[in-house]
Amino acid sequence: MSNLDFIYKRHSIRKFKNQDVPIEDIKEMIKAATYAPSGKNLQNWHFVVVKNKEKIEEMAKIVERKSDELASYATDEEMKKSFTKYRKYQTLFRNAPVVILIFAGPYPSTGLEILKAKGASSEEIHNLLRPSPGIQNIGAAIENLLLAAANMGYGGCWMTSPNFASKEIQDYIGFKKEGYFLAAITPIGVPEESELKSPPRKPIEEVMTIIE
Question: What global pTM score does this model have?
Answer without folding.
Answer: 0.94
